[in-house]
Known about the structure:
The chain has strands spanning 6-10, 23-25, 28-32, 37-48, 51-62, 69-82, 85-95, 100-111, 114-124, 129-133, 137-139. Strands 1, 2, 3, 4, 5, 6, 7, 8, 9, 10 and 11 form an eleven-stranded antiparallel beta sheet that branches. The model has no long low-confidence stretch (mean pLDDT 86). The protein has no helices and eleven strands. The chain is mainly β.
Amino acid sequence: MAAAQQADIAFGAETQDTDQPVEVTADALSVDQESGHAVFSGNVLAAQGEMKLSADRVLVVYSADQARIARLEASGGVTLVSGSDAAEAQSADYDIDAGEIVMRGDVVLLQGDNVLNAQNMTVDLNTGTARMDGRVRTIMAPGD
């Protein structure tokens, strides 16, 4: 059995301030008062500072006291953009308190002319780095 491949890389222009407000726009919103969850659907765009996440559907999970957003769970055509870097995946979970985004399913990361593929990518917004794992493939453009 082959070991899973892994790669650590820079992601985004700089570290992300996870204390900034999160603005979410979508075609529709459904709120479940009992669970404290909100579901945005259709052309969803969640923005926090310079970082933008788009998807078909985003579940917003609030903190236990309902005072703030704790987590975003995105699915369907997920795209994450930070600085000049962009990543696509089938789903993504953003843990705001931890400052971590986990993208899953056929991840494609574009950094300039370079393309990286993997099954999963974990972005640490506090350090501006990402870790890709699960059959990592890289296509690097030759330097000038």
